[in-house]
Write a structure and sequence with these properties.
The protein is mainly alpha-helical and 256 residues long. The protein is 56% helix and 5% strand.
């Protein structure tokens, strides 16, 4: 329920803070608790996997990534997954991505991960199959840029590549962390929206058409009290409706 989710977000935020301070044992404990409470909380799962991998616990890290992927496929999980085997070649990488993507084969993030891995491995047919499906069902700037890269790489066709880049310019935006309260777009997950301070307001989805601000945003400080109950009450008070117009916020929080 809502209480379980709120506790997971607080734990994830504290895990990120601990990781930033080099306290990885604490970071892992909090991130795993958050992941167990809310498997779809990508920041927690990705952080837990990274810390586990750094400690040489690849199997445990893989299980966390797979459970998180089942709940909510996301590029942060793709990055954590790649970090499990930094020395693998492009074909080995593709094989591992295929196994991960097969858990949610129709999801756009699965198709994107497969397309990028196939491009890197120069398996053009697989890349084209995924990108064609995405262009029809989930068009975005990223999809059209990848199609341009495919035309350049496979066929050395600069005209076709240029055509895809023209389409990218007017395509829907790529998925991002969008605040459900005020519509602000953050470059990274944070427990609060930097624009309106809504707690757990950020969701991974296609953003509205907005202008990018040059000034980086800052995140409202989380409650520092160790008592979960007090922290939850303090967080609940930050959910007032926002009057801030939609903006894009850069560097909104520690990357999950």
């Amino acid at each position: 329920g809502g209480r379980r989710r709120r506790r997971a977000v607080l734990l994830a935020a504290r895990a990120l803070a601990a990781h930033a301070d080099g306290r990885d044992v604490e970071a892992l404990t909090r991130a795993r608790k958050a992941h167990d409470l809310a498997p779809g909380l990508v920041a927690a799962g990705a952080l837990a996997a990274r810390v586990l991998a750094a400690a040489g616990r690849r199997r445990a890290a893989t299980k966390v990534i797979e459970a998180a992927w089942d709940a909510a496929p996301h590029p942060l999980l793709v990055e954590a997954h790649a970090a499990l085997a930094p020395k693998e070649n492009a074909m080995q990488r593709l094989k591992r991505v295929e196994r991960l993507a097969a858990r949610r084969p129709e999801h756009p993030e699965s198709r994107l991960a497969l397309a990028e891995a196939a491009l890197a491995a120069e398996v053009w047919g697989a890349a084209r199959a995924q990108l064609t499906a995405l262009a029809e069902a989930h068009p975005s700037r990223r999809v059209f840029r990848l199609l341009a890269r495919l035309e350049e790489s496979e066929n050395d066709d600069t005209a076709a590549a240029r055509s895809w880049l023209w389409r990218a310019a007017s395509a829907p935006g790529d998925a991002a962390w969008v605040c459900g309260k005020c519509g602000a777009v953050a470059s990274e997950w944070a427990p609060r929206c930097a624009a309106c301070a809504a707690f757990d307001g950020l969701a991974w989805k296609t953003p509205p058409a907005v202008d990018v601000l040059d000034a980086p945003g800052t995140v409202a400080a989380l409650p520092s009290a160790p008592a979960e109950e007090g922290a939850e009450k303090a967080a609940a008070g930050a959910d007032a409706p926002a009057e801030t117009p939609p903006v894009v916020v850069d560097g909104a929080g520690a990357r999950g």
